[in-house]
Every structure is written in C-alpha cells, then in structure tokens.
Amino acid sequence: MANILTNLRSTVIAGIVLTILMVAIVVGNTSDGTVGDYLDSGWLIFLFRWLHVLSGVMWIGLLWYFNFVQIPNMPNIPDDQKPAIGKVIAPAALFWFRWAAKATLVTGLILAYLNGYLFEALTLGLMAPEIVAMHTAIGIGMWLGIIMWFNVWFVIWPNQKRALGIIEVDAETKAASARTAMLVSRTNTMLSIPMLYAMVSAQNLY
User: Tens digits of per-residue pLDDT, 64-89?
Assistant: First the structure.
C-alpha cells in the first residue's frame, strides 16, 4: 500500500481501479446485471456528470487554493524562499488549473447536450415556448463558468506567464501582469460562488 500512496500516478490509477470495481458491483446488483441494461439506465450521462464534477473540483479547488492560501500568504514567505513558489509550485498548479478549467467546460457542455437542454440553457430558457426554472439556473451557471474559463485561458494564464518569468519582460510589466492576474483570479473566485449555487440549485428546479 505504501508503494501505491507514495507515487501520485499509482495513487490515481488505484482510484480509477476502485471506481471500476464499484461500477462492476453496481452493475451486478442492477436489474439483470447486464452491462447493456445498466448503460440504458443513463450511465453515459452519469459518467459525464462524474467527469464534470471531478474536473470542477480540481479547477475550483486550485482557484480557491490560489486565493485563500497562496496569494494571502506570499508576503509572509521569506524572499529567499519565494522563487520556489514562482518557479516550481505556481507553474505546476497553473498547469492543472487551466486544463481542469477546460475539462470542466467541455464535459459540462457535453452533459447539457446529452441531457437535451444545451440550447435552452445557453439561451437561459428565453427562446423556449415556456421558461423552465432549471434551464435558467443551469444556464446562468454555464455562462458564469464560460466567463471564468475565458478568464483562466486568455487573461490569467498570459499574465501569469509574464509575472512568473516564463516570458521575459521588464520589471514594470511583470508587476502589472501579476496584479492583473490576481484581480482576475479574485473575480473568478467571486463568480464561483453564484456559479456553484446556480449549478446545484438547478438540480432541484423543474
């Protein structure tokens, strides 16, 4: 067990194996136990919901790590230790951060399509013959998520590359980029609260 837990890749693989075993157990106890019958019960939709939540946990978790842990505590880190954050921790976290954002967006759009409300959600239900509260709520959540994803890829990441020295710029530009990245990251933190409420509340609206 120690060999599995001391290696991240092995830990993730073990988590996937446990998930597969859990699915096999559920299949074995669902209806006549056939895979086809289980898939007919909407398992594909659930699969993308699970992937959407998994990606979202990674994305929002890292967003909150940056804003609740890293940024507020940077002034307390001795200057000689700060390069470890800027050169090692932050670039790695930003890699998972931006790709988790993209995975969350893609799986969310696929999920909405599979559920048959992609158009209704993107138009907030305003183009439908009858406005459905769920479509409006999930649509607001989707648009907030799209705005947040755009901020990650097209504002935060380009500015962080300059702030972290991945792209060489002068000191003034570096400082301005760091501030822009921080403010937009804070904007995403603010938007994440109503976004999560919209997503969760939509499951209880019809």
Answer: 999 999 999 999 999 999 899 999 99
Locate 1 and state its tokens.
């067990």
DSSP secondary structure string for all residues of the chain: -HHHHTSHHHHHHHHHHHHHHHHHHHHHTSTT--HHHHIIIIIHHHHHHHHHHHHHHHHHHHHHHIIIIIHHHGGGS-TTTHHHIIIIIHHHHHHHHHHHHHHHHHHHHHHHHHHT-HHHHHTTTTTSSS--HHHHHHHHHHHHHHHHHHHIIIIIHHHHHHHTTSS---HHHHHHHHHHHHHHHHHHHHHHHHHHHHHHHHTT--
Residue-wise pLDDT for 168-197, tens only, equals 999 999 999 999 999 999 999 999 999 999
Q: Write the single-letter amino acid at 81.
A: Q
Is the pTM of the predicted complex or chain greater than 0.85? yes
